[in-house]
Amino acid sequence: MEKALARFVNEMESEGAPISHESLRDQAIAIRNALKITNFEFSDGWMSNFEKRFSFKSRIIHGKAGSAVTSTQDIQTQISKIKEKINEYGLSNVYNFDETALFYAQVPRRTISKTPLSGQKDDKTRITIALACNADGSHKHKLFFIGHAAKPPCFGGKTGEQHGHWY
């Protein structure tokens, strides 16, 4: 029965189909019933030992790796296509855009004291700052501030325009 279940796991893995513990247990029950095995329960302990016996491990699926370009040749081809497209434009029309976060409400991580202090949960309140400029440096855009408040506390009660920024 376990060999049949291990074959099922291997087939699903080769097809790229994810398998949860619940679906594995359902498949084990179907195999048990097909083989007319009685008095066999699929406990968490059995599941853990089954995975160990067949060198299976529960893993986290990260992103969409299956759709990503993976070979060095494919990557070089894509880079060449991008460069060709960029070369259709003058340097003054090619921009670089990047963003970073300003965690303006976060307290320092270090302190000076006589006794140890307990840590605090980090305050994740932030404003996203975006920067853009063209390739020849002739146009450096003002900073973009991306937030959710009309007058963020870090702006001291003023709007972004009053500070000379886009918000």
Give a summary of the structure in a few sentences.
With 167 residues, the protein is α+β, with helices and mostly antiparallel strands.
If you had to describe this structure to a student in words, what would you say it looks like?
The protein has 167 residues and is of the alpha+beta class. It has 2 domains: 2-53, Arc Repressor Mutant, subunit A (Orthogonal Bundle), CATH 1.10.10; 90-113 and 120-167, no CATH class. Helices cover 32% and strands 11% of the residues. It has 4 helices and 3 strands. The protein has a 3-stranded antiparallel β-sheet with strand order 1-2-3, with no helix packed on it. Helix 1 (2-15) crosses helix 2 (21-34). The longest helix is centred in the middle third of the chain and has 15 residues, at 72-86. The mean pLDDT is 83.
Secondary structure elements and pairings:
Layout: H1 2-15, H2 21-34, H3 44-53, H4 72-86, E1 95-102, E2 127-134, E3 144-146
Antiparallel strand pairs: 1-2, 2-3
Helix pairs in contact: 1-2
Comma- or semicolon-separated keywords:
167 residues, alpha+beta, Arc Repressor Mutant, subunit A, 2 domains, three-stranded antiparallel β-sheet, 4 helices, 3 strands
